[in-house]
């Protein structure tokens, strides 16, 4: 009998030991298994990237999940308490799993033979949301419990609650407590009142059901339940409960207007960050970066609205397009950009599409390189005569050929044959090397590049970047949208920097500024009504299938503050798609932008000459003298003399050559500068000579037309 009792207790002891061993093994299994469920990287949440101006104004948020992470110390206690009260009242007492709730859930599943979700703890919800799927199964619940127990061993309660509040979904595409606070109440989480915090705590259980934007009555009912739970758990006094439950929801949503004018710019920022900072688009959308950009929101919106006006678009079909970029003269930052008249995100960005630039190419491929040679100056005479270069025979668009013309006049009048002949003189390779030095290359080797005749051409961004150099003393800066990128820890990221480059010398750049100013004041762009400093060049290309129609229309202009390149045309040019107006439209569009910007910027009326460069005098213009008169006078000592008079030019630089004509032909007898009279002494009365005056341009030494002829007797 004693032996039997002893044996019985022995087996009981073995059973107890076995149970203890199994318990220990089970607990170790849970702990070890939890390590495979939970990973630290699961708590690096997707966070919104913020794009902002240099003044700190938010432009846009980019995100895969719209979330802004906030640390626990920025979340008020009453907000934390609201979530604990409604989601997990024993949060601070359990070790990750509330076994009473688990037992109740298992019992329900067994009785109903279903897989209904049990009342998970906050820790379990966090594990499920970050590390598991939403599958409703006993295996998933087991993993959830294992992960929760493990997580409670390696993280504090405060850390777990911080993760949870930053991870949960609040509906309307909003993740995390900070974005929810901003979305519903237009304030940061640290400013939330008790009732506002309770309202947000009411949402995670069923965001679509309890959202105050969808059903205000249900939202208030759920919020009041949260407040009641807070009272029951001694987070609120009876007085606070009554006061908070008596409040309205108090929604305060910020105006969220669509901003279609931002689409191109944001696309360019994304592309630039990916290229220069080596971040993938997915990393940009999830990494919580702060990106400072050069956008001027006012200019971006102004240019967008101007592009919507049909007055500038004259074509055979309605789908005529445009591209415009605005660069800052000082630093090359892109202040505004539009890759189309009304682009959506991801649409074709025409700012990066190569187009034939027409005559806007002349300053950068012909006159700039020529001025770099010591033998050429702005008033150097060049040929304006029709010639053929093999199979290539350029023509002036107006059919007028002057024989000789200054480089200045050839540019402002957009003389085609003069530009081609000058390029032939300086050499194509020599000219192209200047663009190559700043990273702009193309395959064409023919003289037609003087007129923008290229298979592909250049982009509006490239054209703007080249013209921007003229008033910046020739300094070339690659256009950028991004000023600075910081990661979520506030560290500034390094970028691939461009080497400093120079297009032309300071002197050449200043000459080009003055010459292009002449295009606006007296050249092909003189039809515009603009009285402030402005320089630029028009350009257009002929349509390949329609006589008298246009394929590309350009204006690239700059003042002391900004450079703007504008292109107008069709994406595809065929017999059915052509423009009926050339460069006039983009010129009017661009100058309208300058006028509107002048209202807030007050642009100067003149360009300021850089130090250590020669000024370019205004061109001398000769007019024909038609009122030459001769008056005879007799002096006691001087005898008979003739005084010639005429109306001189207002330009006192004009030189007048005086000619006497007799039987032996004309002879120059003198000259005066800036005056309208000349005295001829020792006149022989019986020869009765005749006289005339010829104005002379001191810049070119060219003679103008001879005046009327007069005689003294």
Walk me through this protein's architecture.
Among the domains are: 1-32; 68-245, Biosynthetic peptidoglycan transglycosylase-like (Penicillin binding protein transpeptidase fold, Orthogonal Bundle); 357-458, DD-peptidase/beta-lactamase superfamily (Beta-lactamase, 3-Layer(aba) Sandwich); 629-711, Immunoglobulin-like, CATH 2.60.40.10. The chain contains 21 helices and 20 strands. A 5-stranded antiparallel β-sheet has the order 5-4-13-12-11, with helices on both faces. The chain has a 4-stranded mixed β-sheet with strand order 2-1-3-9. Strands 17-16-19-20 form a 4-stranded antiparallel β-sheet, with no helix packed on it. The chain is elongated, with a radius of gyration of 41 Å. It starts with a helix and ends with a strand. Mean pLDDT is 89; it is low at 22-29. The chain crosses the membrane at residues 12-38. Residues 323-589 form the Penicillin-binding protein transpeptidase domain. InterPro entries: Beta-lactam/transpept-like (IPR012338), Glyco_trans_51 (IPR001264), Glycosyltr_51/Transpeptidase (IPR050396), Ig-like_fold (IPR013783), Lysozyme-like_dom_sf (IPR023346), PBP_transglycosylase (IPR036950), PCN-bd_Tpept (IPR001460). This is PBP1A family penicillin-binding protein.
